[in-house]
Design brief:
single chain, alpha+beta, Dna Ligase, domain 1, Nucleotidyltransferase, domain 5, five-stranded mixed β-sheet
């Protein structure tokens, strides 16, 4: 795994430099909105053990600026129009800087598309001394056999989820313990490299430095799942505008991540086509009158539809709420069926706890939790992101789970806790060959 960590070390060093300056921004690049939060760090360094296995801590930073703007140029969680996305990012960052009263140069971004794929890896090494050291942990991470992820794919997250020392398994941190053989289970998430390159290029065009990148599905789970759910096993379904992120957590680590390329914008598009109204009006009607369960009263509840086409009869129409629900429900069911296919592929039914948490802006459709419970067959609750210091009330809703999760990710980046230098004489020959191939291919 040596070469996988090397590929992201430059961004890690940049993040550390930004942390030393005391200010860093997090950017949630979504299909419906772009959110920017400016964080101020108080300079307190956490010990190496405090962040292992948990992202729940929030000490050390405070939100001093927040701004959102309507997303432009982003489809299905990926950049489709570079110049439009650049303008939207500039708008959000400048507004957040104005609120914070300080300039930011480094941003940590998250996005939801790029066709994520999850892999389970394992490695095993013998312990040279009597006690497990950081070098032993680094060697066992390097010993994990990386599968052929395919051309044009890049590793976004690679985190150990379990250590075993001799016959004892379930260790979160084996350093300092006595044993002879160390084994590691690792989760690796790969994405389409072109999507990352486009995002990095767009951030650079905004005169900003990209100091880190994360999957929206991962950081949403970090923000919306409570500690017991992360420990016992739970799935987070982040229903955004253009994509729905799926992440499964176990023992406080993400063990599976995926994305369904459908979201709330597709429901809005169905309403627009079904009622022959503009998208902006369809979004407003969905927000105020939408739902997925029709009752007898909904046939009598009429919704006024106004327009400016010049046709008086077309511009002064009424539709029943039951008709609106009849348009929305099939698309919502389709999204949930795709989510269920992802959970089935991950073996979610084998977890000891099968709690499902819905978050994201589209999760606020009335009755969605009940419909999701029937389709997904598990306990379902609506989740809001946990509170962090200084977060304005306007950005505490489910739609900001990714942005809040990015704050926690910036303060406790799990990848970095295990980024240990390995002495050159301890490299296995296979690892040296992999490292040389990585440098040859990338530099």
């Amino acid at each position: 795994m040596f070469e996988l960590y090397e590929s992201q070390r430059a961004m890690r060093n940049m993040r550390k430099a930004a942390m030393q300056r005391g200010v860093v921004a997090v950017l949630d690049v979504g299909s419906s909105k772009i959110a920017c939060l400016v964080l101020r760090f108080d300079g307190t360094e956490r010990g190496a053990d405090s962040g292992v296995g948990s992202l729940a801590g929030q000490a050390g930073f405070r939100v001093i600026g927040a701004a959102t703007t309507r997303s432009r140029g982003v489809r299905f969680g990926e950049i489709a129009a570079m110049s439009e996305t650049e303008r939207a990012i500039r708008t959000a960052v400048q507004a957040a800087q104005k609120m914070a009263g300080i300039r930011v140069d480094h941003v940590i971004a998250c996005f939801s598309g790029a066709e994520p794929r999850s892999y389970g890896l394992d490695g095993k090494v013998s312990i040279d001394g009597a006690m497990v050291t950081e070098q032993d942990v680094a060697r066992v991470l390097s010993a994990c056999d990386v599968p052929d992820v395919g051309h044009g794919r890049e590793v976004l997250h690679a985190q150990p989820v379990n250590f075993a020392l001799d016959h004892r398994s379930g260790l979160s941190d084996p350093r300092g313990q006595i044993g002879r053989e160390l084994t590691c289970d690792m989760h690796m998430l790969t994405v389409n490299a072109q999507a990352i390159q486009n995002l990095a290029h767009c951030v650079k065009r905004c005169d900003l430095e990209l100091a880190g990148i994360a999957s929206s599905a991962y950081v949403s789970g970090v923000a919306a799942l409570v500690e017991d759910e992360q420990e016992l096993g739970a799935a987070c379904i982040d229903m955004g505008g253009g994509a729905t992120g799926v992440s499964i957590f176990m023992k406080k680590h993400m063990i599976y991540g995926d994305t369904v390329p459908m979201g709330g914008d597709h429901v809005t598009g169905d309403i627009s086509m079904g009622l022959q109204i503009p998208m902006a009006m369809a979004e407003r009607i969905k927000t105020f009158y939408g739902g997925v369960h029709a009752t007898g009263m909904d046939d009598r509840e009429m919704i006024e539809i106004s327009g400016d086409t010049g046709d008086w009869h077309h511009d002064r129409r009424q539709v029943s709420r039951a008709e609106l629900i009849g348009i929305m429900r099939p698309r919502v069911e389709e999204i949930l069926e795709e989510v269920r296919a992802c959970l089935d592929a991950a073996g979610f039914e084998h977890l000891p706890s099968q709690q499902i948490v819905l978050t994201g802006a589209a999760s606020q459709i009335p009755g969605l939790d009940g419909l999701a419970s029937r389709i997904l067959g598990s306990q379902v609750r609506l989740g809001r992101p946990m509170r962090v210091h200084g977060l304005p009330q306007a950005v505490t809703g489910p739609g900001f789970a990714s942005a809040v999760g990015m704050c926690l990710f910036a303060a406790h980046p799990q990848d970095e806790w295990w980024d240990f230098e390995i002495p050159a004489e301890r490299y296995a020959p296979r690892s040296i060959m992999k490292a040389m191939k990585w440098f040859r291919d990338n530099w």
